[in-house]
Amino acid sequence: MLFNEIAYGPIHSRRLGTSLGMELMPLEHKLCTFNCVYCECGWNTPVSHPKLPTRAEVKAALEKKLQEMVNGKCENGTCLDVITFSGNGEPTLHPDFLGIIEDTCALRDQYCPKAKVSVLSNSTQLGRPDVVQALRLCDNRILKLDAATDEMMRRIDLPVNANLTVAQLIEWLKAFDGDFTLQTCFLRGEHAGKPIDNTTPEELEAWYQAVDTLHPKQLMIYVIDRKTPEENLSKISREEMESIAAPLRAKGYDVIVSA
Ligand code: SF4
């Protein structure tokens, strides 16, 4: 499933409300620093010169959408709850990500001042100061950590940088002092002959420890929902997801379960 417009929607989401989606990656294929076995966009496609929308094109597409919405049925800019950057890969890979977020915040202030700006990211670009600066400008940072052991993170996320470690991701995530939503997909299955399971007692123990280290203001844990590129995956039940959330809720964490 690929998004083929720079600004798409708005779509209605139970969790986010009325959300306008923003696509900063190529419209024809996925481009990501992970290649998650569960990715709804499918496997990465190697392309030598991926075509990204320019900062000016993104600004123009967003302004056009906001004008259409505000001129339609919007009163006092209340027609939109959130502008969400996600889509066909990792949005922070865009070289002008900071400038695009600055433009987005300015347009939001002009047309829909009550709307939030949210980014879903896989956390791999947090070593770049411009990306951290951009994410700090946003209202919601939804940042991925699918497992807290290197072995399981690499089996689930298949990072393009095969040397990426969980310790590095955690160190980068500390930059936000807990002011972010930690997002984790729980799943079981097999890929390339190796088992995948981030719900074993050992994996959960490591993940709970990572959560306590980072102390995110919110956790969003979810299950696979649509067709996945790796077919040998199974969905975790809502009951089990609630039992994963329970010890964190008992400690006072805000945990959203999507199952
Ligand atoms: S980080 Fe997101 S876009 Fe990238 S491969 Fe994983 S699920 Fe897909």
Describe the structure.
The chain is α/β, with parallel strands linked by helices. It folds into 2 domains: 1-140, 2-Layer Sandwich (Transcription Regulator spoIIAA); 145-259, Aldolase class I (TIM Barrel), CATH 3.20.20.70. It has 7 helices and 11 strands. It has helices spanning 55-72, 97-111, 129-137, 150-157, 166-173, 201-214, 238-250, and strands at residues 7-13, 17-23, 82-86, 116-121, 140-144, 181-186, 188-191, 194-197, 218-223, 233-234, 255-258. It has an 8-stranded mixed beta sheet. Strands 8-7-10 form a 3-stranded antiparallel beta sheet, covered by helices on one side. α1 (55-72) packs parallel to α2 (97-111) and α2 (97-111) runs parallel beside α3 (129-137). The two termini are 20 Å apart. The mean pLDDT is 94.
What is the element layout, followed by pairings?
Elements (H helix, E strand, L loop, with lengths): L6 E7 L3 E7 L31 H18 L9 E5 L10 H15 L4 E6 L7 H9 L2 E5 L5 H8 L8 H8 L7 E6 L1 E4 L2 E4 L3 H14 L3 E6 L9 E2 L3 H13 L4 E4 L1
Parallel strand pairs: 2-3, 3-4, 4-5, 5-6, 6-9, 9-11
Antiparallel strand pairs: 1-2, 7-8, 7-10
Helix pairs in contact: 1-2, 2-3
The structure holds iron/sulfur cluster.
Iron/sulfur cluster binds next to loops.
Mean pLDDT value: 94
CATH class of the largest domain: Alpha Beta
Radius of gyration: 18 Å
Structural class: alpha/beta
The total strand number stands at 11
Kindly report the CATH topology of the largest domain.
Transcription Regulator spoIIAA
The profile of the biggest β sheet is: 8 strands, mixed
